[in-house]
Write a structure and sequence with these properties.
Layout: H1 2-12, H2 16-21, H3 38-63, H4 74-79
Transmembrane segments: 38-59
Keywords: Membrane, Transmembrane, Transmembrane helix
């Protein structure tokens, strides 16, 4: 796996034209144009916030499921 990432590194990073056309925060990350309007940034920001919230609650509910019955399936994750 690390060897594959080594060989793909050049094809994943942005080329000179893409690097020049992207906003400063996204330069040298990917090909193509970056967010073009304010609403593009709002959609990306909203999606990021949603992903962080879902990740937080997923980890929280896996760690402490809140189910009291010991044979509940959620408690199987806690036992590992």
């Amino acid at each position: 796996m690390p060897l594959t990432l080594f060989f793909l590194q050049g094809s994943v990073l942005a080329c000179e034209v893409c690097r020049r056309n992207q906003p400063e925060i996204l330069q040298d990350i990917s090909h193509g144009v970056g967010p073009l309007q304010f609403w593009d940034n709002m959609v990306v920001g909203g999606a990021t916030i949603l992903v962080v919230i879902v990740l937080f609650y997923s980890a929280k509910l896996l760690w402490k499921p809140g189910e009291q019955h010991s044979s509940h399936i959620k408690n199987l994750v806690k036992d590992f």
